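Researcher: Next entry in the queue.
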Amino acid sequence: MPRHYTPAVNARQIKPASLRQPCKPDTLKSTRNFNSMNSILILHYHEIWLKGGNKKYFLSRLITAVKQSVEDLSVAGPQYISERLILRPRDEAALPQLIERLRRVFGLAYIALGREVPRDLDGLSSAACELMAAKDPRTFAVRAKIADTTFGMNSMELEKTLGQRILDHLRGRGSAVQVKLHDPQVTCWVEIIPGTALIYADRVEGAGGLPAVTSGKVIVLLSGGFDSSVAAYKMMRRGAHASFVHFFGPPSPARGSSRPVAEQIVRALTPYQFTSRLYLVPFDSIQRQIVAGAHESLRLLIYRKMMARIAREIAKTERALGLVTGDSVSQVASQTLHNMAALDRGLDFPVYRPLAGDDKTEILKLAREIGTYQISCEPFEDCCPRFMPRSPAIFARPEQLQEAEAHLNIESLVNEGLEGTTAVDFMFERGSIACREATLPRLKKLLVWRKATGEPAPEHSTVNEEK
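Model: Structure for this entry, 467 residues:
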């Protein structure tokens, strides 16, 4: 790949920041005089560079996501120029909100706040000196990218020339500034594209990954805790569109129901993928029947397998391609490798565990960044710890689970869970989240089919097509 098409993202220059915390006005204060009303936002994308013949598809989805994220704000674009997207704000006051929205768009490597300047050396030098005078750095560097082969200099020559002129200008103002190519305090970025040049010193890290809704559907088994919401985010960042299934029990005197917590989590995650559906499944009655009919040490695993069976049936109505859980290897008793293998046996449906190799510190860090940490800190009554065995099995075998379930009417319990299921649809539109009760005709047809045949629906089929 030619050098001038390489997205030179300096990880040390981009300070990691929460993708969810609002962009503070102070972030832009030092360059407002420089940018005035000529400010533009320069969006560089991430893995789309690597997509070859499929690049157009992913790029079109990225452009759609950018438009949808900022449709209610005063901005023109995006305009696609030489492997970058350009947004032109009509109101400088909207810049912090624009940047905050764009930081949630999967596929973007970074968002830069800059302006267009003439391509001639004098025009570039004047703009660069003005920009760096506004920044008043102790150390700086110049980084140039040339995306137009007709420009008369290469990147290294342009960096050297502009760097010398900036240095002379700042020292002429009495500054003791120095050039520092490795980890400077401020970097002056210059991009030469056909017909114009872009210059900036402020950029923020994007969400990375792949554009939303480019990799198929998945069903996330969502608890109210930290792990499953982070697992959902990591799959969404890979382009998967997540629907959620939450199993809840009755509230206790000390703790409220987990349903409101699950709804808040889905509300927090929806802006990343624009639409979400949350299935709510009452689990108390099913749980009590498991407690009455299964050995105590295997109780928790049977809960989880029953949840997976119900979620699998919902996945078929959604035409989803797999289930997602928040399992982290050996974090709790039910998540040992032996137990996870036992749970998956006989399910005949893909199960994805994006947190398998993560520890709790890594999971909590990401939960804080995506905005679900505080929600999961709220007290609620989770159904899994209810009737918790004193000594849960950690090396269960599939045959043990099968034997423990022999006294349970599995298909009847699955039907019971599906019959009580309701759902809520969430939509991010014009900067706010709207929600409404979902209609579930496919789920109702599934129940009719299951009761008539006494068996699960075929994989990836809708019941009306089977009929």
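Model: The chain has two domains: 3-205, 217-466.
Researcher: Noted, moving on.
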